[in-house]
Amino acid sequence: QAQLVESGGGSVQAGGSLRLTCAYSDRYSSYCKGWFRQAPGKEREGVATLDQDGTRVYAESVKGRFRISQDDAKNTLYLQMNNLEPEDTAMYYCAAHPFVCAVDIERETQFNYWGRGTQVTVSS
Q1: Region of residue 60 (left: phi > 0; alpha: psi -120 to 50; beta: else)
Q2: Could you say which of 8, 45, 52, 113 would form a disulfide bridge with 20 (CB–CB 3.0 to 4.6 Å)?
Q3: In 10 A of CB 64, how many CB atoms?
């Protein structure tokens, strides 16, 4: 069964860094992949996407602080998060879909394969 498995979450103080990892099955190698997050009481929001041509799209709130990358040899997707803020506290999910990534992350509606998430907590 194809899977997306996140890890790397944890608790950090504001200004700190974390690197999230998503191990994915071969099936998703050529898919558009991304990171999403959901805070308690809030809607899920897109954080970053990475297409197979290397195009990266970021939410405005994380531009300049987060970076999405992929290691094809290891079937691993990463999210490097720097200068974390309390507002970044959320459950973070890895996701994939077989189409071209949207140019506007707020218009991403095609993700239909999801991991179970990893919790990120940022304290002030």
Answers
A1: alpha
A2: 8
A3: 9
